[in-house]
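ugh ok so i messed up the first submission bc i forgot one of the chains. this is the corrected input, ALL of the components this time, i swear. 338 residues overall. if the numbers dont match what u have on ur side tell me asap before i send this to the collaborators (the ones from the other lab, u know who)
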Amino acid sequence: MYMKPLADKEALALVGPNVYTLVTSMDKSGKPNALAVGWVTRTSIKPFLMLISIDRRRYSHEGISHHKEFVVNYPTFEQAKGAEVCGSRSGRDCDKLKEAGLEVVASQKVKVPTIKGCTVAFECKVVSFFETGDHTVFVGEVVACSGNPEKTKHLYYQSDHSMLGLAGK
Amino acid sequence: MYMKPLADKEALALVGPNVYTLVTSMDKSGKPNALAVGWVTRTSIKPFLMLISIDRRRYSHEGISHHKEFVVNYPTFEQAKGAEVCGSRSGRDCDKLKEAGLEVVASQKVKVPTIKGCTVAFECKVVSFFETGDHTVFVGEVVACSGNPEKTKHLYYQSDHSMLGLAGK
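and heres the new structure output, hopefully the right one now
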């Protein structure tokens, strides 16, 4: 006896809520950019590694490949509107962070900036990368962390594209 | 001006709630096993790929490497107790699924079974793998999906190790 077979779309609709991060990077000229990334996870305890999966057509793909640095920022629920803008525009055509109304601050150990006021941010240096279908997985060593422990409620997206704020405890 | 610097542990405590899946596999002798895996994400749209990050010391690592198949099961909130057992025992020493009180059913396209009654399950064939620190990332092509769309509330773990049930919508 099987479980009920589901089409890919039906199955994926059951997976959420999914974490919604903003990955900051810099383009070749040094301009900061932010991409909405849900495909992110830790991948090693020692060394402390995280990985992100980035569509090869994204402008951020070029910048991360070039500078070999990125920051994984977990935007707060209050930053939902700006975070959505980062998921719908391309940094190729505009200053996405400005359009999103998000400010950045200097990171501690990488040149790529951190999003001001986010719940938590992981500064990463790329240690390896590999192709997976239409995406590239960038593996980053976490070299510094920062955050805003008063704002624990950060963003998740639902399968209907609505946003949800959840806090760990 | 930086954000507030945080120690790794403090930063990771802010990341949750984290999705809690059970990855089923078979050992070399064909015995089914289930491992609690939070480090899972999609990684390609076309082909439909998912990846899981598995500690190289885990018994499941051996089985997945051998059979090149796994299933990512999202246990329901009602399965929390059994799911926790799968996160605390090794299939090397016991029949973990039995100890957990979880039943399995045949999958549609892989030999590795699916956990009965879970919210959703993705049957995967390994297409590539790579080492990341102390873990191995297995990239699987999703060849079939099944689920239980009446039980949408599935498991997340908090940084204090408590379990939470959340549903996408």
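quick check: DSSP finds four helices and 13 strands in chain B. that seems consistent at least. Chain B touches chain A through 70 residues (CB under 8 Å).
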